[in-house]
Write a structure and sequence with these properties.
Helix content is 37%, strand content 16%. With 397 residues, it is of the alpha/beta class. Strands 8-7-6-9-10-11-12-13 form an eight-stranded mixed β-sheet, sandwiched between helices. The protein has a five-stranded parallel β-sheet with strand order 1-5-4-2-3. β2, α3 and β3 form a beta-alpha-beta unit. Mean pLDDT is 90; it is low at 392-397. The structure holds zinc ion (ZN). Zinc ion binds at residues 293-294, 296-297, 365, 368, 370-371. Residues 293-294, 296-297, 365, 368, 370-371 line the site of zinc ion.
């Protein structure tokens, strides 16, 4: 009489080595050279629902054809696991008896027992069908691809200002699938904004800019979480607001805030993509603490208040913040995905009337009052030394 399936599994288990999850856990968390190779032999859907960190995936149906790719060395220590320990036992038998793997074991109880013991499980990020379609043009460029898109969706980007620069930046970062967009702005939409602040609309005049911006962002991409701060950034709230963001997009229009931001971001180690505009001219740089200069390496102290251009209404070509804001958005995406060469240690100048781009190299100042120090040495007092915006501009008359 032929044996039952259960009997076959019992017999096979008696011919192979089995190992308890506790031994596997201590072997993989050991960190020395004798770590075994962990192979998950389950189906793809099971793998996607969660697997042991560091494991490789070779479904049992592809075992014979793929195992040599995953484990070329037949003397390597290999631990196979499945959901409960049966499929991995059968696979271990195949590797040992038919393929000559010398040192192969099957984990008893599978990932079910592993989880019961409270050991780590990693759940891989994957895109929904709708996300695959929405971001298909990103998935097609190898510099971004699934990995980059996953990073974008997990990223947190803070926009300082939902004005001229913040408008195009927010719209394109939302479209690109940045997962969390924080927006700091204490203003309401005004008719005079609409010549360039394209995230707002005529029927939203009088509405807080953060609310108007959220409405436009959500309309483009419901994947994006919008965090609104209807506030002006100052020494009292800056650390609380910026902490936890991966990249900050600086579109602030005044010097005190720009210096405060620099000092706080150096202290927290957050990269800032900074742009400014006036008339027909724009400039752009990326300040990544300790990888390149900070804003104070370039301009150690703010200009005298009477020379600061930002205290009144200044004229600007309406499309200029679009150009500069989209260069900022591009740098953000590069920083998040790791693609390309971000504009660190370089200052890009754009003159719209002449249609010229000029690049200046900027260096770290070894005597910089902020970034030459250890971040923990930057005191709260040093970050609050600048007067607030009103006082600063009042001094300008
Ligand atoms: Zn510096």
């Amino acid at each position: 009489m032929s044996p039952s399936g259960a009997e076959v599994i019992r017999q096979i288990k008696s011919q192979i080595e089995e190992v308890d999850p506790s031994e596997v856990n201590s072997a993989v968390s050991n960190g020395n050279g004798s770590r075994p190779v962990l192979i998950d032999v389950r189906e793809s859907e099971e793998w996607d629902a969660g697997h042991i960190p560091g494991a490789r995936h070779v479904p049992r149906g592809y075992l014979e054809s793929r195992i040599e790719g995953a484990v070329p060395d037949r003397s390597a220590s290999v631990v196979l696991y499945c959901a409960s320990g049966n499929r991995s036992a059968l696979a271990a038998h195949t590797l040992k008896e038919l393929m000559g793997y010398e040192n192969v074991t099957s984990m008893t109880g599978g990932i079910t027992l592993w989880k019961d013991r409270g050991y780590d499980v990693e759940v891989p990020k994957s895109l929904t069908k709708e996300q695959r379609e929405r971001y298909s043009r990103h998935l097609l460029v190898p510099e971004i691809g699934l990995e980059g898109q996953t990073k974008l969706l997990a990223s947190k980007v803070l926009l300082l200002g939902a004005g001229g620069l913040g408008s195009p930046t927010a719209l394109y970062l939302a479209a690109a699938g940045v997962g969390t967009l924080g927006i700091v702005d204490d203003d309401d939409v005004d008719l005079s904004n609409l010549q360039r602040q394209v995230i707002h609309t005529t029927d939203r005049i009088g509405v807080p800019k953060v609310d108007s911006a959220e409405q436009s962002v959500k309309a483009i991409n419901p994947d994006v979480d919008v965090v609104k701060y209807k506030a002006r950034l100052d020494a009292s709230n800056i650390m609380e607001i910026i902490d936890g963001y991966d990249v900050i997009v600086d579109g602030v229009d005044n010097f005190p805030t720009r210096y405060l931001l620099n000092d706080a971001t150096v202290r927290l180690g957050i990269a800032v993509v900074s742009a400014s505009i006036l008339g027909f001219d724009g400039q752009l740089s990326v300040f990544k603490p300790h990888d390149g200069p900070c804003y104070r390496c370039l301009y150690r102290v703010p200009p005298p208040a009477e020379l600061a251009p930002s205290c009144g209404a200044n004229g600007v070509l309406g499309v200029l913040p679009g150009t500069m804001g989209l260069l900022q958005a591009t740098e953000v995406i590069k920083l998040v995905t790791g693609a390309g060469e971000p504009l660190i240690g370089r200052l890009l100048l754009y003159e719209a009337l002449g249609a010229t781009f000029t690049e200046l190299k900027v260096r770290r100042d070894p005597e910089c009052p902020i970034c030459s120090k250890d971040p923990s040495e930057i005191s709260d007092e040093e970050m609050g030394v600048f007067p607030d915006y009103e006082a600063f501009c009042a001094a300008a008359g």
